[in-house]
Design brief:
single chain, 363 residues, mainly alpha, Growth Hormone, Chain: A, 16 helices, 0% strand
Length: 363
């Protein structure tokens, strides 16, 4: 549900840019609101999930998220677009923290690594959202009708699945949560969070800029430009659905090192080669490379003994979402000063730094 909702926004970005007559710098600035909404909600959600349980948070935030996409399809001014993205980011951030904390509970009950597989289903949702929205737009359906259909699908998923979630598993360990919610992460948690910052920035680049790269630099029609994020999501889903076995074989350090390096190569191919096919190949490599880096980090954070899983994951995810907050704006400003391909090449350089820092996850 979360991947489906987030990816449905990607094909809508060029429409919002055209409707409001924004340049790259303006668009990058307003996209700050998406990551900002997530970051503002996450510390409080870590506390709420630790106190009341992940099940209630997922259900409430999931239903509230249904309002976001129809609003984003209608807004006609820059302030309203910013408010809509702020709200969308806040609800998606709430679901994100609670569902990952819930995944840690399930891993504990099963006694084995499962986080990559869960994130694989997030990517499956991303594939369905990007490809489905692109297909509806290409068929000629109005943007608002497409957004309403997505919102209805989100509501059906939440309503049908909420009863199957664990009841109160996090609450029993969440008594100490208030002592940790507003404390800045330190030590290993801070280092893992900074690596998440870069990976989330890279994933956000795919969400917010892949369609524009295809449309403005590779000659793809606007209605079909969302296929770039769909290719990224397919690759990420494949990588994550096989990721638990990969982590068991390679170990967490080499999973992070090889994955970040492969994602960097993908960005360079998409940015430097001037064809649509090579851009799509680059997006596939980014998806395969980045697939299992964040699941490895989230599992490690969720097992830290000092606090409830929701609180640790909220801290790491908040730093990660800072990449979504700052990344679109930074890429927009660099693209405005140079070109969008040059800005995406800078993301490749950051991913090489992640690969060089992979030993931090050994512990």
């Amino acid at each position: 549900m979360a991947g489906f909702a987030m990816a449905s926004w990607a094909p809508m970005v060029p429409y919002a840019k055209a409707r409001l007559h924004l340049d790259d710098a303006d668009l990058g600035l307003v996209l700050l609101a998406f990551g900002g909404g997530s970051m503002l909600s996450m510390p409080a959600i870590g506390w709420l999930a630790g106190r009341y349980g992940n099940r209630r948070v997922i259900g409430a935030a999931g239903f509230l998220m249904c309002l976001a996409l129809p609003v984003l399809a209608l807004v006609s001014t820059l302030p309203l677009l910013a408010v809509g993205l702020l709200y969308f980011g806040a609800m998606l951030g709430a679901v994100d923290v609670a569902m990952n904390a819930h995944a840690v509970d399930v891993e504990r009950l099963q006694g084995r690594a499962m986080m990559s597989g869960f994130h694989g289903l997030f990517s499956v949702g991303g594939l369905v959202g990007a490809a489905g929205m692109s297909a509806m737009l290409a068929s000629g359906l109005p943007l608002l009708a497409c957004a309403l259909f997505v919102s209805l699908a989100i509501a059906v998923i939440v309503f049908s699945q909420q009863a199957s979630l664990l009841r109160g598993a996090a609450a029993t360990r969440g008594a100490a949560a208030p002592a940790f919610v507003f404390r800045l992460p330190r030590g290993l948690l801070l280092l893992v969070g900074m690596l998440c910052f870069v990976i989330f920035l890279a994933e956000g680049s795919m969400l917010d800029w892949s369609a524009l790269l295809l449309r403005d630099f590779r000659g793809t029609a606007a209605a079909s430009a969302g296929i770039g994020y769909a290719c990224f999501s397919v690759a990420m889903a494949v990588g994550r659905l096989t990721g638990d076995r990969l982590v068991a074989r390679l170990g967490p350090v080499w999973t992070v090192r090889a994955g970040a390096a492969l994602a960097a190569i993908g960005f360079l191919i998409a940015a430097l080669l001037p064809w649509e096919a090579t851009a799509l190949l680059g997006f596939v490599l980014v998806g395969l490379g980045a697939a299992n880096v964040v699941p490895v980090m989230f599992s490690a954070a969720g097992r830290l003994p000092a606090s409830a899983p929701a609180v640790s994951i909220a801290a790491v995810t908040t730093l990660g979402y800072a990449g979504l907050l700052l990344g679109p704006a930074l890429i927009g400003f660099v693209a405005h000063a140079t070109t969008l391909p040059a800005a995406l090449a800078c993301v490749a350089a950051l991913l090489l730094l992640v690969a060089a820092s992979a030993r931090v996850v050994r512990r």
